[in-house]
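Continued from yesterday's entry.
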Amino acid sequence: MVESELPDFFDPAKGYSGMKAVLLNEHGPVENLHFVTDHPIPTPGPGQVRVRVHAAALNYLDIWVRNGWPGIKLSYPHIPGADAAGVIDALGQGVEGWEIGSRVAIDPTESCGECAYCRSGRENMCVNFRLRGEHIGGTYAEYIVVSARNLVALPDHVSYAEAAAASLVFVTAWHSLITRGNLRPAESVLIVGAGGGVNTACIQIAKLMNCTVYVIGSTDDKLAQARALGADVVIQRDIEGGWSRAVYQFTAKRGVDVVVDNVGAATLNDSLRAATRGGRILTVGNTSGPKVEIDNRLIFGKHLSIIGSTMGPHQDYVTVMNLLFKGKLKAVIGATYPLDQAQEAQRTLERGEVFGKIVLEI
């Protein structure tokens, strides 16, 4: 092996050294994230590959994991992050169909591959479901090991940043809207929140289905960007009389067929009011809090369905990423930072200043 072919972590004077990574040693504020250059480099096991990460994307999950919640169990030091894209650097025993040097995007959901859910193609319901960056080590690092079955080949015309930014939010949005929500062409869709990654994906998927899209947003700038993505009607969150009433008026007192509400406690009752009879409320998160007091009369009186889901099976990931690769969907990137500025990247995410995704370049 000539020197130009040596891996990034090889120092001719010292031999193999560590890798760059961002570590969390205890729950708490953003200052608990520590950038290091000597973290041990993982070795792929059977059925795994090692990926040299070129881009990792942030999700609000990273903030929740950093802060912690009752019952969460991390193995310290913990590496945050669910999303990544890069190049295969090493192959574990038994891996076939992949080569060192292949560009790849990574499905963030790790599953056992053996339980009844996995065998039926519902890996996101696996009895040993593990989300990268929450249940296992994440992507804020130069190198990670992943199951070979989690990979999707990344075409040359798609950047690492685009693939990383799309992964979690697009598979989550696709599974919620299409697989679980059974979205049909020409339906009406209300998306509560304009700027988050899942919501920007939902806008595009709904428009791909030729649906009429209503978006609730907090600022004129975010609403303008939502409209640029295809939203048909945009509504200020603090509009006089309330946004659910505004939606009712915009739809001639009918309401919408589908509501995407990942805010939770602060908005769910308004979402129930904005839905038409027989409507569906889709939820994959609760950024404002998990516990909600619901007026049950709205549910049975309007024949509403509340449909929850987490992530998506691998086939949904393959489907939606191929739509991205074909240019039918696009990753929305609001800001990029180098890995050693992960603290500032999370501060920006917490402040809610960015429309779309934040990406770490590695």
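--- second protein ---
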Amino acid sequence: MVENADVVIIGAGVIGVAAGRAFARDGREVIVLERNSAVGSETSSRNSGVIHAGIYYPENSLKAQLCVRGKQLLYTFCRDYDVKFKRCGKLIVATDDSELSQLKMHQSQALANGVHDVHWLRQQTVRHLEPEVNCVAGLLSPSTGVVDTATLLARLHSDLEAHGGSVVFNSQVNRLSGSMYPCVEVADFKLKPKLTINCAGLTASSLARDIGIKHNQFFAKGQYYEYQIHSEHRPLFQHLIYPVATPETIGIHITVDVHGTVKFGPDVQWLEEINYDFDESRKHLFVQAIKRYYPNLVEDALRPGYTGIRSKLVSAHQGFVDFRIRGPKETGIPGYIEAIGIDSPGLTSSLAIGEYLVALAND
């Protein structure tokens, strides 16, 4: 039996619940279908938990626009809904003169994206802020922070339900069908929505293929080590510490989460299929990368933390690719919107993506 519905969102990661909240607050009847037993069980709970400033992304890209807007919305939401966060700031550091030109490009890109609070720091100033960090110069991004992702997801879920929406757990969407106003097929029921929004993360591309939309899909796994070392005087790091980015990655960086845990990661491992196993044979690659900017690293204090998998639209060494957020005008399918390839800065951008999806639906 097929039941009619208003808005059905596939996936209750941070993008799905943020979108569900936005549509519910817009007066729509929202059902979010989630294959796991809790919100944010996959990509959303397996990342750095960083609130990004909007530094790296090409001007006018969706990543740049939605990150800058999302950062503002996210800090406001955290204050209004009692979500723990810390606006600790981030240092991007050049460890030798060969990286200075790229560091300057980061600063120029930040300004182009409307991030006007990024400051160039000399070596002595960086060492005053972070005595353990080795560099020749750095950029300070004071609006970068960290957030308690679990609480953020819980508050978004609660606010979605407070506005009449619902999340249906343990509901794997097996396929989409139909070339107009697609039918959403779950094992024991089918829904015929006025609007289907594909926020399915790791399975979003395969669901799009069901209705004739082809996207390349690749999986990139990232590992995180926790650093279990005690500092007698003050916290070991006051800021997040990032190396200069490359075209493929923003690098293995230092995050101090809202609970004070120091983490290093992620690296990048390209996968044929989803696999969350932690590979300790890669530890030497972490050590090599970290010691460039933190030479006093105590290797024995690194403990395996967790892994996360990001769905990518391009594979290794293919450069920048933007979020792919498209409505019926772009897909050619009435009643269908997709948010695919939402990797970093997806968490930061989530509330802005919710706004954007509502605007697409109302266009």
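Residues 89 and 144 are 5 Å apart (CA to CA). The chain has two domains: 2-47+150-216+320-362, 86-145+218-312. Will compare against the first tomorrow.
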